[in-house]
């Protein structure tokens, strides 16, 4: 691992932030202390924090989980300023100022808004202020939702071009079995291949370990790692965990960075939603997959959905398997009369 990480994104989830009668102030203090310490070492830090909905639930003494999307959105609107007030107080103890950034998937999909967000982060670094990011839950409905803060953290790391992403959770890292149930569960030290990890670990049991929580984290970590950002999943309950990670004390599970994806490929694969689906025949599949060719209209058997030039589409094999995502060079209604490559080789990202 690189010795000196300059720009670091830290993600904390609701489980760590939940206190008995509200937000866990001790945990918020701990995070503020650790991130302030990093800042005083000359590092630039970003915090991705959940806790808005949770904060709303606690403030209103809600006895049940919010049912509808609207109820959750209202609770996040109530809880977000509460959360930020607690962070403001905690960071002020160390003389640090914070800023709030709320994002939706729309903000990342739009190239302009992505650039604006990136510029704002850069200005905040220059102003010596710590950005605290959450999803803009009050306006996030299905189509524009990132959905979870693990993926949000991965995307934010890409936006700010982070040198390291630390995802804090309630276990010491990724285990081959649920460590809360199995005494012989072994920690995975290093991950370089997500398929390999899936074979070694039991992610689909009935426990909380398998119900999406840990797997979502693994997938999100892998996304950032494929963009060349090392990711560490570690235990947020441990004292000075962030400082220890940076002092090279082997902590948590490390996802090795790979230089697999360019910015454009990351966007196509993980940020853009396909506007349409294109089914191709065996010949085209072979040409694209094995012969390094672009996709020509003659190999297309069927299209679904409406798309325009520049949209992202998914390409499927005859038996319905998603082969790749790519940027289309024509509109869905004139694809038959188009006589050039409709998805250029350079605009394709293959799905493993
Ligand atoms: N944005 C949500 C909140 O602040 C949390 C989402 C998540 O933890 O994945 O309440």
Key attributes of the depicted protein:
352 residues, alpha/beta, Carbamate kinase, Archaeosine Trna-guanine Transglycosylase, Chain: A, domain 4, 2 domains, eight-stranded mixed beta sheet, 12 helices, 13 strands, binds glutamic acid
Shape: globular
| CATH fold label of the largest domain | Carbamate kinase
The proportion of strand residues reads 15-25%
Strand order, main sheet: write it out. 3-4-2-1-5-7-8-6
Output the radius of gyration.
22 Å
Number of domains: 2
Q: Give the names of the bound compounds.
A: glutamic acid
Instruction: Let me know the number of strands.
Output: 13
Instruction: Let me know the average pLDDT.
Output: 91
- CATH class of the largest domain equals Alpha Beta
The N- and C-terminal alpha carbons lie at a distance of 26 Å
Q: In sequence order, what are the helices and strands, one letter per element? A: EHHEHHEHHEHEEHHEHEHEHEEEE
Name the structural class.
Answer: alpha/beta
Please describe the biggest sheet, giving its number of strands, its sense, and whether it closes into a barrel.
8 strands, mixed
**CATH architecture assignment name of the largest domain:** 3-Layer(aba) Sandwich
State the helical fraction: 25-40%
The CATH superfamily of the largest domain is Acetylglutamate kinase-like
Low-confidence stretches: 205-212
State the helix count.
12
């Amino acid at each position: 691992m690189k010795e000196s990480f300059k720009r670091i994104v830290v993600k904390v989830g609701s489980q760590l932030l939940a206190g008995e009668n509200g937000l866990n102030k001790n945990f918020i203090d701990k995070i503020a202390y650790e991130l302030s310490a990093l800042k005083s070492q000359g590092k630039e830090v970003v915090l991705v924090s959940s806790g808005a909905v949770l904060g709303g639930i606690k403030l209103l003494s809600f006895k049940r989980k919010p049912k509808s999307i609207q109820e959750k959105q209202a609770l996040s609107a109530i809880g977000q300023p509460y959360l930020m007030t607690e962070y403001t107080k905690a960071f002020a103890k160390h003389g640090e100022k914070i800023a709030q950034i709320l994002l939706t998937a729309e903000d990342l999909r739009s190239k302009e808004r992505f650039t604006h967000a990136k510029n704002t982060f850069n200005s905040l670094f220059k102003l010596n202020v710590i950005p605290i990011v959450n999803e803009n839950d009050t306006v996030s409905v299905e189509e524009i939702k990132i959905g979870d803060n693990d993926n949000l953290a991965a995307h934010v790391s890409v936006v700010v071009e982070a040198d390291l992403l630390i995802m804090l959770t309630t276990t010491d890292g990724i285990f081959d079995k649920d460590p809360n149930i199995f005494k012989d569960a072994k920690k995975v030290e290093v991950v370089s291949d997500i398929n390999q990890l899936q074979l070694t670990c039991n992610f689909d049991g009935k426990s909380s370990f398998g119900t999406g929580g840990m797997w979502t984290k693994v997938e999100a970590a892998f996304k950032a790692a494929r963009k060349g950002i090392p990711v560490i999943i570690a235990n947020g309950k441990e004292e000075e965990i962030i400082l220890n990670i940076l002092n090279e004390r082997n902590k948590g599970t490390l996802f090795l960075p790979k230089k697999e994806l360019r910015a454009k490929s990351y966007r196509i694969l993980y940020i853009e939603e396909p506007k349409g689906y294109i089914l191709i025949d065996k010949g085209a599949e072979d040409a694209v997959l094995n012969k390094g060719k672009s996709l020509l209209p003659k190999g297309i058997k069927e299209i679904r959905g409406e798309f325009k030039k520049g949209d992202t589409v998914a390409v499927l094999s005859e038996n319905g398997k998603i082969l790749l995502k790519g940027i289309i060079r024509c509109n869905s209604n004139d694809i038959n009369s188009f006589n050039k490559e409709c998805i250029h080789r350079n605009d394709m990202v293959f799905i493993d």
